[in-house]
Structures are given as structure tokens and as C-alpha cells.
């Protein structure tokens, strides 16, 4: 097996490293969360978030992201203590270099099985980014249902 090398594609993920304050009123109410993103030698990136849900319960989330050169895609996973489903991702960075679109399948809101989702990490500048979640509509368009805003701390 060949040793992994840091590629130019990893630079998007490197921008996420650090401490972040997270505001996501749709999911967490008005209390901000915190997220710490670290790099595993520039190849894999791990984001651990924690905070209080709208029901007052504490929650923890873990997002992993990397780049798979054999697929030519960004890959990753997401788990959260508030659910028992592990989300897996594949995606790409848009030509602007500021938007990572990740695609996945997961439980449909109406309980009818699985649905298609798109999550986007969008850098507004080096210290502010958003994370949006959208579901695919029957006509193929994406309908956004959640947005979180991340502000770099310190």
C-alpha cells in the first residue's frame, strides 16, 4: 500500500482546522455550540462539535473528511449522539474554491426510507463558514432545511 501524500485538494480541508463557535438556531436553539477541527497529518480532518439541543439535552457530533485520489472525490462521515445513523459522504469542491458539496443518503423526514441529501461547507472568508443541509425534491432541485454558521474563535 502506498503512503498517503498531502495533495492540493487537502488545502480546502486545512482551512477548517481550529476552534469555532457554532450558531444553528434551527437545530440548537439560541445557545451556540463549539467545534474543534484537527488535522491528521494533513490527510484526514476530524471535527468534533458539542452543545445543547433545542430539547435541552447535550449532544456531540463527529465529522471526518479527507480526499480520496482514487475516486477523485472528497469522502467522509458524520455521527451524532442524537441519532443512530452514520452518514457517509462523497463530494467535490466547486471551482470558486470556497464550497465543498457533499452528497449522502439517509433517513427521510417522513419515515418512508432513505432520501438524498446535499451538505455544503461554504467559506465566506477565512474566519466564517456555513454548513447547510438540503434534501432532494421530486423535481431534482435541492431544498435547504438547515444552516449553521461557524465563526473562528481567537
Q: Could you walk me through the main structural features you see in this protein, from its secondary elements to its overall organization?
A:
There is one protein chain. The protein is mainly beta and 154 residues long. The protein has one domain (10-152): Lipocalin, CATH 2.40.128.20. It contains two helices and ten strands, in the order H-E-H-E-E-E-E-E-E-E-E-E. The chain has helices spanning 10-14, 25-28; strands at 18-23, 33-40, 44-52, 58-68, 73-80, 87-93, 99-107, 114-125, 128-136, 142-152. Strands 1-2-3-4-5-6-7-8-9-10 form a ten-stranded antiparallel beta barrel. A hairpin with a 2-residue loop joins strand 8 (114-125) and strand 9 (128-136). The longest helix is centred in the first third of the chain and has 5 residues, at 10-14. The radius of gyration is 16 Å and the shape is globular.
- Taken from the alpha-carbon principal axes, the silhouette is globular
| Helicity level | under 10%
- The count of helical stretches stands at 2
Tell me about the largest β-sheet: 10 strands, antiparallel, barrel
Q: What is the end-to-end distance?
A: 40 Å
Please state the oligomeric state of the protein chains shown.
single chain
What percent strand? over 45%
- Strand line-up across the major sheet: 1-2-3-4-5-6-7-8-9-10
Give me some keywords for this one.
single chain, 154 residues, mainly beta, Lipocalin, 10-stranded antiparallel β-barrel, 2 helices, 10 strands, 6% helix, 58% strand, globular, DUF1579, DUF1579 domain-containing protein
Amino acid at each position: 500500500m502506498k503512503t498517503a501524500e498531502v495533495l492540493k485538494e487537502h488545502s480546502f480541508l486545512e482551512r477548517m482546522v481550529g476552534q469555532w463557535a457554532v450558531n444553528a438556531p434551527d437545530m440548537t436553539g439560541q445557545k451556540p455550540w463549539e467545534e474543534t477541527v484537527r488535522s491528521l497529518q494533513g490527510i484526514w480532518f476530524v471535527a468534533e462539535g458539542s452543545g445543547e439541543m433545542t430539547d435541552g439535552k447535550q449532544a456531540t457530533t463527529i465529522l471526518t473528511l479527507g480526499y480520496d485520489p482514487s475516486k477523485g472525490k472528497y469522502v467522509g462521515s458524520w455521527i451524532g449522539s442524537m441519532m443512530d445513523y452514520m452518514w457517509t459522504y462523497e463530494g467535490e469542491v466547486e471551482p470558486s474554491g470556497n464550497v465543498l458539496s457533499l452528497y449522502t443518503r439517509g433517513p427521510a423526514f417522513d419515515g418512508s426510507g432513505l432520501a438524498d441529501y446535499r451538505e455544503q461547507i461554504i467559506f465566506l472568508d477565512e474566519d466564517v463558514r456555513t454548513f447547510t443541509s438540503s434534501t432532494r425534491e421530486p423535481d431534482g432541485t435541492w431544498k435547504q432545511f438547515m444552516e449553521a454558521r461557524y465563526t473562528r474563535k481567537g
